[in-house]
Design brief:
membrane; 368 residues; globular; mainly alpha; transmembrane; Sulfate exporter family transporter
Length: 368
């Protein structure tokens, strides 16, 4: 049984503790007991979900804005993401933002394979296939060559040439994921996506007028549009603006360019590891798993094992993943960093765009 003395001692201890708190003195708290995980991966999920949630919310807002105002969704995601750059400077969102801009990006690129079948590519005939291969490879080589002459990093020339030559923002993200990491890499990726999206939108408006001025028939116009416009959505918009047949041909040619993503990204990964600054010298590069998944989906879809509903679902998930990744990449980059790039990167991408248009136009006029 407690005595009065014990009661007084306890009251005095409580009084002194309250006085410590009033004076601002720090009282060490007992360490909280470690909570048992309710399911595997709970710790990782808890760490990642704030940043992923923010990136997903930006992707959702960008999609709504794109649907209501008709501007490219990737551009909205980039600009909105960059306004939330402060979330990547400190705080709980950093791990999730990094995860969105890397892991979710690669998953989205892998799912692009669900769009393509070997039958679609072979149905075009040999001339469009050869034309696309020459146009893509020559545009990347031109970018690497001119980048050094303009005082830019050679890696930027490869990145911008691949984005212009293959499929715009999606290709830029895929190529950036295998290039050597450096302090300017993320800024260059953001700049490439912004410029290639703007150029693609301009091309969607002007190229149908160009095909009419050159008196190209519907098939030739489809090959030209699919072989030159950067983003898939803009190709579809420009093609069906002319006719359903032109839209179908343009879409198939564009998917042929998308299929070049696998060999081109792997070749860039191989060469970057050996030749570009920041690479691993003579180290043997490994085939990125997302490219393996991309190739597997192309094969499965070509064999007819992937139902149309599954292919459509994979395409939609891929779109959401890429928009989320763009939002994450935007949050990692500040407007100030992008503005320091100057006019040379923009000039390079304009020249690359004019080059691929010229190559495809010559092929269409003389060999198709």
């Amino acid at each position: 049984m407690n005595s009065d003395l014990d009661t007084d001692a306890a009251a005095a201890r409580a009084l002194f503790q309250s006085l410590e708190g009033m004076e601002g003195l720090h009282r060490p708290e007992p360490a909280p007991a470690a909570k048992a995980q309710r399911f595997p991966g709970q710790a990782a999920l808890t760490k990642l979900y704030p940043g992923v949630l923010v990136a997903g919310t930006i992707a959702l807002a960008s999609t709504w804005l794109s649907q209501h105002y008709g501007a490219p969704v990737m551009l909205f995601a980039l600009l909105l993401g960059m306004t939330f750059h402060f979330l990547h400077q400190e705080g709980r969102c950093i791990p999730g933002i990094e995860f969105s801009s890397k892991a979710i990006l690669r998953f989205g690129v892998a799912l692009l394979g669900a769009r393509i079948t070997a039958g679609q590519i072979l149905s075009l005939g040999i001339t469009p296939i050869v034309t696309v291969m020459i146009a893509v490879v020559s545009t990347i080589l031109l970018g690497a060559f001119l980048a050094k002459r303009l005082g830019l990093r050679q890696g930027f020339g490869v990145l911008s040439g691949g984005a212009v030559g293959i499929c715009g923002a999606s290709a830029a993200l895929a190529i950036a994921s295998v290039l050597p990491r450096d302090k300017d890499g993320e800024r260059d990726t953001i700049l490439t996506v912004v410029v290639v999206t703007a150029l693609s939108t301009i091309a969607m408006i002007t190229y149908p007028l160009l095909t009419a001025a050159l008196h190209l028939d519907q098939t030739k116009a489809g090959v030209f549009l699919g072989g030159t416009i950067h983003d898939v959505a803009q190709v579809v918009g420009a093609g069906y603006m002319i006719s359903p047949h032109t839209g179908d041909v343009a879409t198939y040619v564009k998917l042929l360019r998308v299929s070049m993503l696998l060999p081109v990204v792997f070749a860039i990964a191989l060469l970057a590891a050996r030749m570009l600054p920041g690479g691993r010298g003579g180290a043997k590069p490994q085939l990125p798993l997302f490219l393996v998944a991309f190739a597997a989906l192309v094969a499965v879809n070509s064999l007819g094992w992937l139902p149309k509903a599954g292919a459509d679902a994979a395409t939609e998930v891929s779109r959401w993943c890429l928009v989320t990744a763009i939002a994450g990449l935007g949050m990692k980059t500040s407007f100030k960093d992008v503005m320091t790039a100057g006019w040379r990167p923009v000039a390079l991408m304009v020249v690359e765009t004019a080059w691929i248009a010229g190559v495809v136009l010559v092929a269409v006029e003389w060999f198709l």
